[in-house]
Design goal:
CATH class of the largest domain in chain A: Alpha Beta
Number of helices of chain A: 11
Helix content of chain B: 25-40%
Structural class of chain B: alpha/beta
Strand content of chain B: 15-25%
Number of strands of chain A: 14
Number of domains of chain A: 2
Number of helices of chain B: 10
Strand content of chain A: 15-25%
Strand order of the largest sheet of chain A: 8-9-10-4-11-12-14-13
CATH superfamily of the largest domain in chain A: P-loop containing nucleotide triphosphate hydrolases
Largest sheet of chain B: 8 strands, mixed
Number of strands of chain B: 12
Order of helices and strands of chain B: EEEHEEHEHHHEHEHEEHHEEH
Structural class of chain A: alpha/beta
CATH topology of the largest domain in chain A: Rossmann fold
CATH architecture of the largest domain in chain A: 3-Layer(aba) Sandwich
Order of helices and strands of chain A: EEEEHEEEEHHHHHEHEHEEHHHEE
Distance between the termini of chain B: 34 Å
Shape of chain A: globular
Largest interface: A-B, 40 and 42 residues
Radius of gyration of chain B: 22 Å
Radius of gyration of chain A: 21 Å
Oligomer: heterodimer
Chain lengths: 335, 331
């Protein structure tokens, strides 16, 4: 096992890339064929930034996150090709396993009830994530560390939470415990898969506040995976929009929300109701998200696209650069 | 206001028995899930009910179609008092009130074809022949935008949005006055949610329906509803026009909710830190989380009427309005 150098970050410029994904292709083996889930994804995360990946179910958001941290179910899921760099070090493909998890990249999974062990108390599980760092702390120090992280996460009755089992806590509390567990190791990059989905409004806001606080206090880089455009709009600096296994648009939050280039990003934005009742129907076309095992010819969005042209049905668009943003659409061909 | 009250709920109370402890089996305990909730619904409006998980939103919905029985209070539908122990009253209730549940998977029988599932909605109606029933199903499928070829598949072959359309078709195939929508879009993707919301708006106009819309999504409530009621641990804390509730919320809880709501326009009010406490059963239910708490809040406030709005908060009692105005200026 190769260990990453520990304080590589301090000497580097703060604007450097913490994570780079190049042309990542992932497919799932089914009984009769291989289905491509990610069809060439490029991603660049800047240190200290909050990046959001938005898209609907089946677009490959979660697969991308799992591929980055290396927890894909292989088989049936395979990484076909592509490279992943973390702080300039190639972490995939590598012959030897590299120790980048924990203090390097950490992930909070979508359903905390599944990622917490049901037969251990929260205390036991949090202690474990301190112990794996190999710092040989005394029992008392560990206890203090736990109390501190829980109060940072605005959990007031820390003693009760530490002594309970996961099923005894509410959804919001479990989510906070899961975040606490991954924050204990002070990762440089934290990936959060749908961090607020299914939580109540007030809890959702608390979690968002908290994550932004982590970023400003510890300089953690955040990668947020969500289907909720409002969450992305309130947290992210940079946004990537995914559709059918490809990134169809990227840009800063303001660019993507205020002035989306790709028709799909426009549709996503217009799907979120924002006005009162008399503000007219929502501008959305009929149709469903595509079936990845049976993608339409050409651009996979063309059956739902309000501005589809002939070429969209025949050929898949390649990446175009428009005003320093990347977009995958024939509309911007030759501009 | 001389508007037509289609449904009136007075002091509705729902209690569920709590499992007694192993060694005291005779002692029966009840948990009050809905605590003296009153509201009325005007014909043709969309009334929203918002609340957090466990606030009793779905319990109200289920009570209004007779799945749960109330343990206290009165429900008047079209002026007729519903006696939940009388079968004819329950049939009257179910003939006029339809419901769509949140989970489209759990509410469709996996062993029936879509055609038969939609047909279930006509079980009450005995007057139709087989041909008439078939044409009715085809007609309603067209109305909800369901492709005819899908009518002969099973629920597992349909996408989430299509399943919700099937639930909708089943609910309105026999004419209904009121349709209860219990989180109809929260399991759907945003673009599919938008399709369903548009469909609901059109159907309402076409069939003169009255909606009770239950959700925890504030952007959806704002877009769909005329009035809303805010529910917190089984108590209705505020009933207002949607515009009033968003621009000038009365109850401290509503204020907190509106402050916490996030839109795609970006950050609204992230400046204040929220303290969330446990609900207080003896007294104002929001006491432990409230920013404006006073001594009087240790007793449960009455539902106070302010013009067309209702609020369950001591701040709005006649003698305290000035005090409140001072507090409000201070913030």
């Amino acid at each position: 096992m190769i260990n990453l150098p520990r304080d590589i970050s301090s000497e580097k410029n703060l604007n450097d890339l913490i994570l780079e994904v190049k042309n990542l292709r992932v497919s799932i083996e089914t009984i009769d064929k291989r289905v491509e889930v990610l069809r060439g994804v490029d991603l660049k995360l800047k240190r200290g930034e909050v990046t959001a990946i938005v898209g609907e179910s089946g677009s490959g958001k979660t697969t991308l996150a799992q591929a980055i941290i290396g927890v894909l179910d292989t088989p049936p899921v395979f990484i076909e090709s592509g490279e992943i760099f973390f702080e300039g070090v190639k972490i995939f493909p590598q012959k030897e396993r590299i120790n980048f998890r924990g203090q390097g990249i950490n992930m909070v999974f979508q359903e905390p009830l599944v990622s917490l062990n049901p037969v251990y108390t929260i205390r036991k599980q949090l202690e474990e994530s301190i112990e794996v760092q190999g710092l040989h702390m005394k029992k008392k120090e560990i206890e203090e560390e736990l109390k501190k992280i829980l109060s940072d996460l605005m959990i007031r009755d820390a003693e009760r939470v530490l002594n309970s089992y996961p099923h005894q806590l509410s959804g919001g509390m479990r989510q906070r415990v899961a975040i606490a567990m991954s924050m204990i190791q002070k990762p440089k990059l934290l990936i959060l898969d749908e961090p607020t989905t299914g939580l109540d409004l007030l809890v959702q806001r608390k979690i968002i506040q908290l994550l932004l606080k982590l970023r400003s206090e510890f300089g953690t880089t955040l990668l947020i995976i969500t289907h909720d455009l409002a969450v992305a709009a309130n947290m992210a600096d940079r946004m990537y929009v995914m559709y059918a296994g490809k990134i169809v648009e990227s840009g800063t939050k303001e660019q993507v929300i205020r002035n989306p280039l790709h028709p799909y990003s426009k549709m996503l934005r217009d799907s979120v109701p924002s006005g009162y009742k008399d503000s007219g129907p929502l501008r959305v076309t009929e149709g469903n998200p595509p079936d990845i095992s049976n993608l339409p010819s050409g651009c996979p969005f063309h059956p739902r696209c309000p501005v589809a042209m002939d070429i969209c049905r025949k050929e898949e668009p390649s990446r175009k650069i428009v005003e320093d943003r990347e977009v995958l659409c024939w509309l911007y061909d030759g501009k | 206001m001389m508007e037509n009250k289609i449904l009136e709920v007075r002091d509705l109370e729902v209690k569920f028995p709590v499992k007694s402890k192993l060694f005291s089996p005779k002692e029966e305990k009840f948990k009050t899930v809905i605590d003296k909730v009153s509201f009325s619904i005007v014909e043709g409006e969309t009334f929203g009910i918002v609340g957090e998980t466990g606030s009793g939103k779905s319990t109200i919905a289920k009570t209004l179609v007779g799945i749960n029985y109330p343990s206290g209070g009165e429900i008047y539908l079209l002026g007729r008092k519903i006696n939940f122990n009388r079968k004819s009253d329950l049939i009257f209730l179910r003939k006029n009130v339809g419901i769509i549940f949140q989970d489209p998977v759990g509410s469709l029988n996996p062993k029936l074809r879509i055609f038969d599932i939609i047909l279930e909605g006509l079980n009450f109606e005995e007057k139709y022949t087989k041909e008439e029933k078939k044409s009715k199903v085809l007609e309603i499928a067209k109305k909800v935008g369901l492709n005819e070829s899908k009518l002969y598949s099973y629920p597992s072959e349909l996408s989430g949005g299509e399943k919700q359309r099937v639930s909708l078709a089943r609910a309105i195939i026999s004419p209904k006055k009121i349709l209860i929508l219990d989180e109809p879009t929260s399991s759907l993707d945003v673009s599919i949610q938008a399709q369903i919301l548009n469909l609901l708006q059109n159907l309402k106009k076409e069939l003169n329906l009255t909606y009770i819309f239950i959700t925890h999504d504030f952007n959806v409530i704002k877009y769909m509803c005329d009035r809303l009621g805010v529910l917190y641990y089984g108590r209705m804390l505020e009933i207002s026009e949607v515009k009033d509730a968003y621009e000038n919320p009365l109850h401290p809880y509503t204020k907190d909710l509106m402050n916490a709501n996030i839109t795609i326009e970006g950050t609204s009010g992230f400046e204040s830190e929220l303290e969330m406490g446990e609900p207080e059963r003896n007294g104002c239910i929001y006491l432990n989380s409230c920013r404006f708490k006073m001594d009087v809040c240790r007793s449960d406030p009455p539902l106070i009427q302010l013009n067309a709005r209702y609020v369950k908060c001591w701040l709005y009692e006649e003698s305290r309005r000035e005090e409140y105005a001072k507090v409000n200026r201070g913030t």
